[in-house]
Amino acid sequence: MQLNDRINIQKFINETDDEGFNKESWNDYYNCWARFKTVGWKEYYSAKAIQAENTVTFTIRYSPKIKAMLDDPSVTKKYRVVYKNKNYDIKYINDLDNKHEYVDIKAEIIT
Asked: For residue 32, is it left (φ>0), alpha (ψ between -120 and 50) or beta?
């Protein structure tokens, strides 16, 4: 499988600064190579039914950082993908065939 697109996975951080104010930011979590794929026609019509026509798939290699994401029940709220200067909300993450080799990240562009 060719992974020839570079992506950056960012993690949402909510910290309190020295003066007691909340400071929210997105910090780089994991940079990796990916395969970028838009939804196919069959997927498009299924996605259209749930109004997710901006859905894409990033396929990446399994790694310890990705395992931590898979184990996190709030992954869709804490992480996002940055690809070609565009932000994508993670909607679903899946260990392909539970083989711990590749992971699909279904994401939707933030408009």
From this structure: beta
Rounded-to-integer distance, Cα 29 and Cα 10, Å: 5
Question: Where do the domains of the chain lie, and which CATH numbers do they carry?
Answer: 5-109 (2.40.10.270)
Token readout for 44 is: 């498009």
The two most distant CA atoms of the chain are separated, in Å, by: 52
Residue 53 CA, chain-centre distance (Å), reads 16
Residue with tokens 């070609």: 84
End-to-end CA distance of the chain: 30
Which tens digits make up the pLDDT trace of 75-110? 999 999 999 999 999 999 999 999 999 999 999 999
25 falls in which pLDDT band (50, 70, 90)? very high
Of 3, 5, 106, the residue nearest 56 (C-alpha): 106
Which two tokens mark 35?
């395969």
Question: Which residue from 89, 95, 93 is spatially nearest to 107, judged by alpha carbons?
Answer: 89
- Residue 1, pLDDT score: 83
